[in-house]
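Give me the fold.
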Amino acid sequence: MDDYLIDDERLSLGRKSVLPGEGFFFPDSFEEEQAEAEARGILEGAGVVVVADPDADGLACTALIREAHGEGALLPAGPHDLQEALAWTAEYAESDATVYVCDLCPDSESDLGALEDLVDAVERLVWFDHHQWTDDLGALVDRTGVERTVGDSEAVCTADVALAELDYDFDERWADLAAVTRDHDLWIRDDPRSDDLADYAYWSEPEEYIGTVAEHGADLSPEVHEFLAENRVEKEALIEKAVDRAELREVGEWTVGVTYGRCSQNEVAEALREQGADAAVIVKPAGSASIRGTENFERAHEVAQQVNGGGHPKAAGCKPDIYDDMLDYAHHWTTQGAVAKQAIVDAFKRLPEEDDEGVDTER
């Protein structure tokens, strides 16, 4: 494929909004080969390893672990990369290494296929998280001897868990970093610094982010604020396009805002909430989707679990299993996610009714 066709820098904002980033067009096999080689380089010789989601919460955990141990090699891994990350760590980590898995929750038993190998391969395995775990997956992990701590997903982020569980006397700066991270991760948004952390984690390289918060905490430097201001011009424009193309659907007892686009999903969800949505579905050009709830809808994770995902009551993610070939993706882009939208809306319809105490009952 001609590089010109997927060059993000030359795309108009309108086209950029409906197409995935250029990394999408590289075959998974090619990316996996590169990723495994990079993982091997990261893991070999490391005494402490952190496998973490490279968002603000996962990176804050990494910074905390490095502060406590004086080291910590980061192996970034998203929710859909968990199995590969565990397998690579089992293969390449040192036998005397301590491994932390942070801000990652398995969606199914298949995500844990390499877990026993990893437990056998390293000296110690610790898991910090705050997502909604099923009892079966939690029990499976616990039986292997992993030191697993999962915080209340409605009250803490994973950085809070790491701060409490690590055997180290952290000063107040680190508690402040965890609190501001929580403010964004749980979508509380009482502290204006939390959006800055989230955006900076998204736009910067993980090592740059970790180094910055280790030095400055949640109070970012003027140079970082200038960097954020420059990047937010395009961010706001992409948010506006996603909001403009949204529609409100009545699904059972809820009003669900549904839209499509490459955008910052939390801000789009907030705009749809202001328009009266109880929940928001933001389908992305790469095929994944974000589901956001409100005080009127705290079952986002239940929706996501039906369409190949998971998460929190008010914030979840998924990727419906509907893409068999590139024609399906072409249809996805030209219809602005019509099939994915319907698959997720149907998942709302299948939610069991709740009784007066919020307990699911069969319809």
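The mean pLDDT is 93.
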